[in-house]
Write a structure and sequence with these properties.
- By secondary structure, the protein is of the alpha+beta class.
- The strands form 3 sheets. It has a 4-stranded mixed β-sheet, with helices on one face. A 3-stranded antiparallel β-sheet has the order 5-6-7, with no helix packed on it.
- It has 3 domains: 110 residues, Transcription Regulator spoIIAA (2-Layer Sandwich); 48 residues, no CATH class; 73 residues, Arc Repressor Mutant, subunit A, CATH 1.10.10.
- The protein is built from 11 helices and 10 strands.
Length: 246
């Protein structure tokens, strides 16, 4: 936890030291946040001339202080209309300043998209080293034991640290592709589906055709469909229509 001025000072110090590729996180949609204050927060981001922003709507998790306070009615959630107004203002201001809304919660100036996170969204293989670290090779998900003592003990004995793994079925791989790609402005490449998941193509296009009348949700042509700004806002509900269950 830190005050606003401390955060601003840290950013300025980074810039003075020569760092330019800096990203910050902002949260909206929480009780007490007015449209005016949210606009002020966004303007502070613009004034700092930062190339990347991750903006998240507040979520309430169980077994947290906020979750408990909400459950005991110490405050109320922001209304959907108020949350929507925050989101619309966010998209409007950043688009006007040249930021691309390239992922549900992420905005960047050209060339400053997150290389790390994009590897997840594009289903690229990655290796996780250390306790609880995850690895992925497109067909297997693997995660290391979280206990540091056991992790080091196995390394010292020149054996692989204990881990668990999940072998992804073709349907799992398809679902992962849909979930990750629909979060991005790149959208779903139907040629990719045709090549790697040919047995899912008819299912997917049927679902698309059932929803394409609602032009608020996504852009669609014969090769590509992707969510609109409104579609991003309700992305989880849209994704559910394209996911294949067990």
């Amino acid at each position: 936890m830190h005050p606003v001025e401390q955060a601003k000072e840290s950013i300025l110090n980074l810039q003075k030291a020569g760092f330019q590729n800096i990203s910050i996180d902002l949260i909206y949609g929480f009780p007490g946040l007015s449209q005016k204050i949210w606009k002020t927060n966004l303007q502070k981001f613009i004034d700092l001339k930062l190339p990347h922003l991750s903006a998240y709507h507040l979520t309430y998790e169980e077994k947290t202080v906020l979750g408990h306070r909400l459950k005991t009615k110490q405050f109320s959630e922001l209304s959907e209309d108020e949350s929507l107004s925050h989101y619309n203002l966010l998209c409007k201001i950043l688009a006007k300043k040249g930021y691309s809304h390239y992922e549900v919660s992420n905005f960047a100036l050209p060339g400053f998209e997150s290389k790390h996170n994009k590897s997840y969204w594009e289903s690229k293989p990655y290796l996780g080293l250390g306790p609880a670290a995850h690895s992925f090779n497109s067909k297997i998900r693997q995660w290391n034991h979280p206990n540091l003592y056991y992790y080091i003990k196995h390394l010292n004995s020149e054996s692989l640290p204990p881990h668990d793994a999940e072998i992804l079925s073709p349907t799992d791989q398809y679902n992962d592709y849909i979930i990750t790609r629909m979060r991005t402005s790149s959208g779903i490449d139907l040629d990719f589906i045709k090549t790697y998941f040919p047995d899912k193509l008819n299912y997917l296009t049927t679902k698309i055709n059932s929803l394409k009348k609602d032009k608020r949700l996504f852009f669609y042509n014969e090769r590509l469909f992707k969510l609109t700004e409104y579609g991003f806002l309700i992305s989880n509900k849209v994704m559910e229509a394209f996911i294949i269950g067990d």
